Amino acid sequence: MPLWPGGVVAPFAASDCFFCRLPGYTAPHTLGTGGDQDRGRTVAPCVNEPGGRSCEQESALMTEASIRPAEQTDAVPLGAALGDQRYFEDRLTRQAKGLGVLFTAWRGRTPVGALYLWLEDAEEPPIRGHLPGVPLLTHLEVLPDQRNRGIGAALVRAVERHLADHGHARGALAVRTDNTRAARLYRRLGYRDWGHGTVVCYSERTLPDGRTVSEPERCHVLVKGLPPVIRQR
Ligand SMILES: CC(C)(COP(=O)(O)OP(=O)(O)OC[C@H]1O[C@@H](n2cnc3c(N)ncnc32)[C@H](O)[C@@H]1OP(=O)(O)O)[C@@H](O)C(=O)NCCC(=O)NCCS
C-alpha cells in the first residue's frame, strides 16, 4: 500500500495506478498530488488492479508518460499540443486562485493530455442543486495518437487521489450522452449515474477571433464515492 504525504496511507488499490510508472520514474515537484515525500524520489512499482489489467501492463503502455498539475508556464505548450491556449490560460488563472487544479500528462516536454478539476460551484443548476460542493472532473482530453494506453485513466486517478487526500468524499463529472467511449472509461473507473436524469451542460470553446463560447450539450452525470484516506499514527 503506498504512502502518501505525512505518512498517510492511500488504501485504494484501484487508484494505485496513478503512480504506475516505469521502474526508475522520478516524481516531479507537484502541487500536492504526490507531496513532499514523493518529490525527487523514485516511486515504487504499483500494485495490481483487481479484476483488470495489471499495473505493470498499464505502465508498459503508458511508457514514460507522467502526470502533474500544470504550472503557469505550461499554457503555451498545452495550447500548442492540445489547442485552445486561452482555455488553459483561464484554467491556470483559476488554479492560481485556488479554484481548481489543472492536471496534465506529459511525454518528455510534450503535453499529451489534460483534465481540469473544477472546485467552484457547478455552472449547471441541477448539478449545483443535487451535488453541492462536489468537485467536478472536467475537460478530460488525451491526444488522439496517445489514446488507449491508460493516460486518460491515469489522469482520472490522479484527480481522485488528490481529492481523497484533500478530504473529499465524492467526485462527479458530466459526459455527453453520445460520448460512449468516455462513458465506458468512467464506468470502468467506478463512476455511476447520479439518478436524476440527464442535464444540459456546457462545453467551452475558443473561436478563432478569441471569443469564448459556451455550447449546450445533453449530458449524463456520473458520481463516484472516494475512499477515505487513513492517516498512520
Ligand atoms: C476519453 C479519452 C480521454 C480517453 O483517454 P485514453 O487515454 O484513451 O483513456 P484510457 O487509455 O485510459 O482508456 C481508453 C481505453 O483504452 C483501454 N486501455 C487503456 N490502457 C490499456 C492497456 N494498458 N491495455 C489495454 N487496453 C488499455 C482502456 O481499457 C479503455 O478501454 P474502453 O474504451 O473499453 O474503456 C480520450 O478518448 C479522448 O480524449 N477523447 C476525446 C475527448 C473526450 O471525449 N473527453 C471526455 C469528455 S467527458
From TrEMBL:
<keyword id="KW-0808">Transferase</keyword>
<dbReference type="InterPro" id="IPR000182">
    <property type="entry name" value="GNAT_dom"/>
</dbReference>
<dbReference type="InterPro" id="IPR016181">
    <property type="entry name" value="Acyl_CoA_acyltransferase"/>
</dbReference>
<feature type="domain" description="N-acetyltransferase">
    <location>
        <begin position="65"/>
        <end position="208"/>
    </location>
</feature>
<keyword id="KW-0012">Acyltransferase</keyword>
<protein>
    <recommendedName>
        <fullName>N-acetyltransferase domain-containing protein</fullName>
    </recommendedName>
</protein>
<dbReference type="Pfam" id="PF00583">
    <property type="entry name" value="Acetyltransf_1"/>
</dbReference>
<dbReference type="InterPro" id="IPR050680">
    <property type="entry name" value="YpeA/RimI_acetyltransf"/>
</dbReference>
